[in-house]
Amino acid sequence: MTGTGRWPLGEVDASHSFRVFDYWARNRRRFPNKTHVAVLVAESTGGRFRIALEELAEHVPLLVVELRSWQGSSEVVIVPDLVVTNDSVDVSGTPLAVTAGQSRTETDWKDALTEDAWLFHLDLAEWARKHLGPIVVDYSPKSYIGIRVGRRVWAPLRPRKDGAQIYLPDPDQSRGDESPAFAHFREVLAERGYTLNWQTTYNAGANPVAVRLRRKDLTDTAVHQLLEATYRAVQPGAHNWSEEASVERERAAGESSLEIESDAGEGLPEPGGMPDLD
Questions:
Q1: The domain containing residue 153 runs over which residues?
Q2: Strands 2-6 and 76-85
Q3: 149 vs 234: CA distance, rounded Å
Q4: Cα(187)–Cα(233) distance, rounded to whole angstroms?
Q5: Is the same domain home to 195 and 165?
Q6: 110 and 227 together in one domain
Q7: Are residues 29 and 139 in the same domain?
């Protein structure tokens, strides 16, 4: 995720407010495959333009942060305070989550969830560690349990009575239009009774693949394939799933062609010889 920010001193004004969106828009155009968030940091944002910022945050990934100064015995500590945010932007695991009142604990979540919902997230985490690789369960977000891969939230879980609504990254790393990988998994999972939705409004488009899962679904091989493809998408140097799948199909087709040619050659006489006659 890429943040585009401005840090004006004093009260925020029209110039600073507009410039952060100018930088954000330019970076979106320059790096279309990255997730971009507009970040405005100022000493104070409570003046004339606060209402406009709050309204804009309803529609674009915007964070507005005020800097608080705390005086110690021999130093001044600057503390960021998140005052305006777009709900789709993930700030869990950062100091902003605490100042925004978005921090929860494992105990908070366990007390709030049904037994099935709690066991679902434990089963998913255990399966991911065993079959995919390292993950960290983050209980600090207010509205979801985050399963992280490095610094990235791979699978935010919004608990339901018997499972969770999960938002996954696209295997082709698309944050805009539906990708060929999404179309493939939507068709495969539809045959098994699942519904995949494409929602780019969540987390600034970083996790657009939405699916509702229950505990029993974690034994389904089609679900395993989706989870594996999305996990690989957040690895360093990841390639598009569709491109890799196409290369694999071409390789398999080439091997099949060689086998057919080899089979066709069986039973032919050696060069210069004649087949045995009864």
A1: 106-233
A2: unpaired
A3: 7
A4: 20
A5: yes
A6: yes
A7: no
pTM of the predicted protein model? 0.63
Q: Which residue has the higher pLDDT, 232 or 96?
A: 232
Average pLDDT over residues 86-92: 74
Number of domains the chain is built from = 2
Whether 111 and 201 share a structural domain: yes
More confident residue, 271 or 32: 32
Of 140 and 241, the structure prediction assigns the larger pLDDT to 241
Strands, sheet with 62-71, edge to edge from the N-terminal-most edge strand: 2-6, 36-42, 62-71, 76-85
Confidence of residue 19 (pLDDT cuts 50, 70, 90): confident
33 in Cβ contact with 62 (< 8 Å): no
- Same domain, yes or no: 72 and 24: yes
Q: Are 80 and 86 in contact (CB under 8 A)?
A: no
Tokens 């503390």 -> residue: 79
Asked if residue 80 and residue 115 are part of one domain, the reply reads no
Joined together, the tokens standing for residue 156 give 């935010």
Q: Which residue has the higher pLDDT, 184 or 81?
A: 184
d(CA 97, CA 5): 18
User: 114 and 59: one domain?
Assistant: no
Residue 8: predicted pLDDT: 56
Say whether both 42 and 82 belong to one domain: yes
